[in-house]
Every structure is written in structure tokens, then in C-alpha cells.
Design brief:
The chain is of the alpha+beta class. Helix 1 packs parallel to helix 2, helix 2 packs antiparallel against helix 3 and helix 6 runs antiparallel to helix 7. The protein is globular and about 55 Å long.
């Protein structure tokens, strides 16, 4: 069974407050994009895991393995699996590359083993594995709140041409959160952004782009700031870092701007990908 595991970007990210347990309350607009890994999984006599990227191994931090073990403990199945992950989404990029693979594993096992999991049971599994896994499970443009446990899908009418650019260095999310000063951070209007996407209002959408984690992530990886600045100088209507980085995305209605930027950043040695929102 093959499952596409779609990447995401944060069109808006507001860090609202730090909780007593050390986690943060967030409010975000997150959208899936047409860029994905492919998880191929089938029942087998013994467990095996292969990936086209050597850095992805079958350790407990692998979200695919974590999802299987969580569900095995909960439902008590004995089956083993032959797994192949065709990996394309880069890591430490703010694109949910690990989270989306975990979500794909939950979907695959629910179908393969006929577990008949309810939405709440799938949600519980997703939240046990990682913060963005539940959004990836829902897989629709959404307002995401709390620690990723409140996901409210909406109908996105706005069609966007998006260019992803990622420097070689990634950002460890925990490090970005350690550096944030919530009182001084930028706090985008997430509700207004969601409304602009529902209303097909491009001008308001561009004005509401914002990410509270940009400034601390700029301090961790200066190239993020450089890429954003260069995109805006090239004529993009808007540019923003996704998640905690290090991917920056540019938005433009001018195909020529996107094509020129794609060639330029690729020649500079960056990871580059043109994408659209999956609705």
C-alpha cells in the first residue's frame, strides 16, 4: 500500500504564550502543499525499513516506526511490515517532513489491518507521535491552535503560486523557541489571514503574512533572513519563513519572477521547489 505524505507550510504562525509545562500555545494557518514523500508499506513475516535517504533509519525517533509501535501497543496486533520510504521533503525545514510520514503510517495501518479507528482514536495516536502529525492527518488548509491539538479546516479559495527555498543548514525547533521573546515578537492576525484565504482576497492575505519564530530563527541561521530579503528585492509580493525554518517561501502572481528566482536560488546551491496548496 502506497500513501502520499504531503508537506505543509505555515502561512501564519503566532506564538501566543509559554505554558507552565514549557510548551507554547500557538495559533497558525497551515496548508498542505503538492510536495510529498511516499510511504510504501505491506504486511511481512519480519520487520524491515528502507529509505532512499541514508540519514533516515529505523530508530525510535523515526515517526513511521513510532506510529507502528504506538498502534501495536494499543491494538495488540502481531503483524510485521516491510516498509519503504521514498523521501523527498528535507528535514529541519519547517515542512513537517517527519510528522507527515507518521500521519501516513497511521492512515496505512488503519486500512491494512482494518482497525476501524475513529477520528478521535486517530487524533490520539497522532498527538502521541508529534505536534504536527494531527494536522498532517487532517490534510486540509486549517487554523491550528494550542500545541497542534486543535485543527479547524476551512475552504481555501485563494490559489497561490509558491516557491520554496531552503538553505543547507536546518533549524532545531526547540532552539528557536528558546530564543523567542514573546512580548517583543511579531504576532500576526491569524483569523484575518484565514478569512482572506476563504474570501479569495490576495491583497489582505499578503498583508497578514507573519511568523513569530522568524526573528529567533534568523539568529540561528542567517541565510533564512538573506533568502527572504532577496526574494522581496526580486519582486515577490510576500515572503515568509515556514514553521521554525529553515525553509522560506515566496508568493507572486508573476510566473516570470518565480521562474527567475527558481533558477537563481538553484544555481546558488539551495533546495528549491515550486508548489501549490492542496485543497
Amino acid at each position: 500500500m502506497k500513501i502520499r505524505a504531503y508537506a505543509k507550510i505555515n502561512l501564519g504562525l503566532d506564538v501566543i504564550r509559554r505554558k507552565e509545562n514549557g510548551y507554547h500555545d500557538l495559533k497558525m494557518v497551515m496548508v498542505p502543499i503538492d510536495f510529498y514523500d511516499v510511504l510504501d508499506i505491506e504486511i511481512a513475516s519480519k520487520m524491515s525499513f528502507e529509505c532512499n535517504r541514508e540519514y533516515v533509519t529505523s530508530n525510535p525517533n523515526n515517526t513511521v516506526i513510532a506510529a507502528i509501535e504506538y498502534l501495536r501497543n494499543k491494538y495488540g496486533f502481531k503483524e510485521n511490515f516491510k516498509i519503504y520510504l521514498d523521501k523527498h521533503i528535507p528535514t529541519k525545514a519547517g515542512l513537517a517532513g517527519g510528522s507527515t510520514d507518521g500521519a501516513a503510517a497511521i492512515i496505512a495501518l488503519n486500512k491494512l489491518l482494518k482497525l476501524n479507528m475513529s477520528h478521535e482514536e486517530m487524533k490520539e495516536a497522532a498527538l502521541a507521535i508529534g505536534a504536527d502529525v494531527y494536522f498532517c492527518l487532517v490534510g486540509k488548509p486549517s487554523i491550528v491552535e494550542g500545541i497542534g491539538d486543535i485543527v479547524t479546516p476551512f475552504d481555501c479559495k485563494l490559489d497561490l503560486d509558491i516557491l520554496l527555498v531552503k538553505p543547507k543548514k536546518g533549524v532545531v525547533t526547540k532552539e528557536a523557541f528558546k530564543l523567542i521573546n514573546i512580548d517583543k515578537a511579531y504576532h500576526p492576525d491569524i483569523d484575518l489571514m484565514a478569512k482572506s484565504l476563504k474570501d479569495n482576497d490576495y491583497e489582505t492575505f499578503i498583508k497578514t503574512l507573519g511568523n513569530s519564530l522568524e526573528e529567533p530563527s534568523f539568529r540561528l541561521v542567517k541565510e533564512i533572513s538573506d533568502i527572504k530579503e532577496e526574494m522581496l528585492e526580486m519582486g515577490f509580493d510576500g515572503a515568509l519563513m515556514s514553521g521554525s525554518g529553515s525553509t522560506v517561501f515566496g508568493i507572486s502572481n508573476d510566473k516570470n519572477i518565480i521562474l527567475k528566482a527558481q533558477e537563481k536560488f538553484k544555481n546558488d546551491g539551495y533546495f528549491v521547489r515550486r508548489v501549490k496548496i492542496v485543497k
